Fold this sequence. Notes:
single chain, alpha/beta, Dihydrofolate Reductase, subunit A, eight-stranded mixed beta sheet, 5 helices, about 30% strand
Amino acid sequence: MGxxxxxxxxxxxxxxxxxGGENFKYQDxxxxxxxxxxxxxxxEIEALGAAALLLxxxxxxxxxxxxxxxxxxxxDKYNGMPKYVVSSTLTEPRWTNTTVLSGDLVEEVxxxxxxxxxxxxxxxxxxxxxxxLAHDLVxxxxxxxxxxxxxxxxxxxxxxxxxxxWTLTGATTYGDGVLVTTYRRTQRG
Length: 189
């Protein structure tokens, strides 16, 4: 049985938009802070531990453009692992081992959780992450919180149909005060 793990770079005010990207008022805002070697290692171990990637289309396109150009253990992992992209318009994915999920989100992700053994990592992918949370499909949340209030940009937190309770399973500070918290979904009704 697979577990859905959201992994987000987030500001103190909940902004998750373009932490390392362009076309945003505060381009590459997360790179203004040193995560230190232990913070870098945390992200590497997190990524290497995933059995599959689940991505929204925009994040998928960014990853598909970038990762095939890199070498090393993490690049080999990302380039070779199964990838699932939620999209109603993408028909011919070009990144190896990619499957397009174009049906009902709840049905597609529930099936994926039954079929994939291990962690299904959801990095970034704001709209997808919000949809997964709204349908209570997320099993864990990993937040790397940067000590900045951006005051502008898309946030992770939107309305959900009901209250969702989580258990804090870890909290560590790295580098320039970057806080990593991990949460596990408490027992569902």
